[in-house]
Structure formats: structure tokens, C-alpha cells
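User: Show me a protein chain along with its predicted structure.
Assistant: Here is one chain, sequence first, then C-alpha cells.
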Amino acid sequence: MKQQVRKWGLSILVLFWIGIAYMGFRQVSDEATSLTKVTLGYQKADMMDISKERGVFEKKMKAKGYKIIWKEFQDGSSLMQAVKAGKVDYARLGDTPPVVAQANGTKLSYIAAGSTRSNGSGILVAKDSGITSLNDLKGKKIAYTKGTSSEYFVRNALKKAGISSDEVDLVNLDASDASAAFSKGKVAAWATWDPMTATAEVKQDATLLINGNNGISNNREYIVATSEYAENHTDISKYLVEYMSNDMEWANQNHTKLISMLSKALNLSDQIVKKMVERRTYGLTTINQAILDEQQAIADLFYEEGVIKNKITIENTVN
């Protein structure tokens, strides 16, 4: 009899714990389904990547009723295609992909602009190449990625130096293929941005022939969305900019923690990440006329060079 009572007691206890587990599962499940999903597209080491790795942004958005979905892309051109296709709600992009998309008829809203990344963007050459100026690149191969900030950088740098793009051999490669081609000497130069620039400088002993200063390229970061999405989600945009701005303030004030965090996330040495972090300032700002003028300069040059077929006025394509 006692043995039977013990069995009944054990069964009741098991059912009790199953009930607790089920209720807990239902609570978590109900909470997850009640959150509105917001998909963010980003690239390695950009503003969104910092917010993703730090983790505070995601918690704050959850408290407001939003579940953040992160999607990583290798470059802004492919990310812009995802925005246009509706696979990404907000995207962190460089300066050039939005312009190309706008020229192709995509209606965009610039949600916010980041600070300049001119010091970490530029044209790399091998240290022992003997190349000391842009004139030395005439007739040589320069790797870049079509539709990204690297394309604007190389075209504008050549123009300012009085060199036609026809006087060099521009080779369109994605970032990983460009890195391989550069390391094997298959191209004489490589136009790119951090962290690829810092990685090549440290690991391949590359030299930054020219950076974005002196009016070549501020290479700002932008957060964009389609105009339709932005019009219908103003609260999300407000929270996104506010909370991500807080992360950028943290990044500026905590370089040591930031370097350690990004080194682990990117699987890069502290030396590489330190070089990248210490040559820029993080920040977000509202869109102003000066920033629109920067984007217009890209559109004008790309039209002049035949990169885009339609002459556009940036202000008319921004909602």
C-alpha cells in the first residue's frame, strides 16, 4: 500500500513539474509571438554590428515590443538588393549603394547618417611595389567592388588627380576575392574600407597609398529603409536611432572594451581592430543639406562616368 502511495505521489510530482514547464514554455512562446519582428541588415564592424555584439540595443527594442532579426552581408550592394526585395527592413550602408539604388528608381528614406570613415577607407598597394602616387597606377589593375563606396572612392580619387578611369584597369571583385587577388599580386592596388584596410595593412604589410581625406570621400555610414516602410514605422525608426546612438557614445568612450569585443566577434587580432577603431569617431546624426550634397556629388560623378544611366537629384529621391 505504501509503495502504491509513493508511486501516486511521484506521478503527481512529475505532472506538477510538467505543468510548470508547459506554462513557462507558453509564456515564452506567447511573448515571442507578441513581439513585432524588425530585420536589420549589416556588415562586419559597422554601427549595427557594434550594437548587435554589445546586446543592449536588442534588449531595449524588446522592451518596446520589437524582436530584432540580424542579417549579415558582405557588401552594401547585395544588402541594398535585400532592402529592395523586402527581405530587410533597415540597412546600414555605405554612401554609394543608396545612390545607385535611387538612380534605379528605388524610393528610399535616409533614417540617419554616421560619422566620416575617411581615415580607414582608401587605395592599398604592396609596400615594396614602388607605387608612390596615383600616377604610378596608370595601366595597372585596381580592384574594387562595383556599386560600393570603393567604386566612388577610386573614381573620385582618379578624377581629382587628373587621371581618366580609362587610363587604369578597374577590376570588379567582391571583398574576399579582391583580398586574395591583392595578396597574390594579381592586382596592383585595392580600393576598400575598414576592417579590410586595417587587415591588409597588418597581415599583408600593405600601404595605404591614399585615404579619403582632402575631399576624396567621407564614406559615411547610413541607415536607410524603403520610403514605404519608413512612412509606416516612424516609432521604430525613432527608437533605432536613439538606442544605436547610445551604443556609438559607448563605443567612443570604451575603446578597450570595444576592441576586445570586436576582436572576438570578427576573429581578428587586437592589433587590426585597434587600428580600425582608433582612426575614427562613432556617431549618428540627422540628415542635413551638407550630407545630401555629399550624396549628390556621388550621383553626379557616377552619371558622368556612366556608372548610372539616370541623372538624379538626391533630394527628389529621398522621402
